[in-house]
Amino acid sequence: MSTERRTNKTFLIGSMLTGLVSAFLAFDVVLKVLQLAPAVETTTQLGYPVETILWIGVIELVFLVLYLVPRTSILGAVLLTGYLGGAIATHVRVGSPLLGYTFFPIYVAAMVWGGIYLRDARLRTLLPLRHPL
Q1: Which of 6, 30, 7, 26 is closest to 18 using CA atoms?
Q2: Are the C-beta atoms of 79 and 66 separated by less than 8 Å?
Q3: Is the pTM value of this prediction over 0.85?
Q4: Which of 8, 19, 20, 80 has its C-alpha lying 20 to 30 A from 105's C-alpha?
Q5: Minimal CA–CA distance to 123: which of 79, 75, 62, 83?
Q6: pLDDT tens digits for 41-95?
């Protein structure tokens, strides 16, 4: 397979992965910013006061926008990883089941980094992993 064709396929798959994870994160942002019932219930069950839900959503939105802008996408991925690390720590603290809740932010972070790795040649230059695409 030619390098150009591999690059186009890699970019396409990375863009689809980025789109998928971004849609999930955008949905989460909407729930938090509008303070809809599922976000309020879940966040308060995890031990956070209702007053923090809006700000958590705004922070997540800023990080997501940074991730989606090509020039700042790597910074956005780093910040989203930190945000998701906080989610992991919260689930560990409250004793959530590992597979259902605690590991979920890890899956999301893997999709964030997988998407950016496949669509951004700068990152592939910094981390030259072999990939079959």
Answers
A1: 26
A2: yes
A3: yes
A4: 8
A5: 75
A6: 999 999 999 999 999 999 999 999 999 999 999 999 999 999 999 999 999 999 9
How far, in Å, CA of 3 to CA of 32, rounded?
43
Task: Give the pLDDT band of residue 5 (cuts 50, 70, 90).
Answer: low
Length of the chain: 133
Per the structure block, which two tokens stand in for 5?
């064709």
Give the residue carrying structure tokens 């030619």: 2
Is the model's pLDDT at 24 over the cut of 60? yes
Q: Strand, helix or coil at 65?
A: helix
Specify whether the CB–CB gap between 127 and 117 falls below 8 A: yes
Tokens 């186009």 correspond to 8
C-alpha to C-alpha distance for 75 and 37, rounded to whole angstroms: 31
Q: Determine contact, residues 13/124, Cβ cutoff 8 Å.
A: no
Segment 114-118 mean pLDDT: 94
Backbone angles phi, psi at 28, to 5 degrees: -65, -40
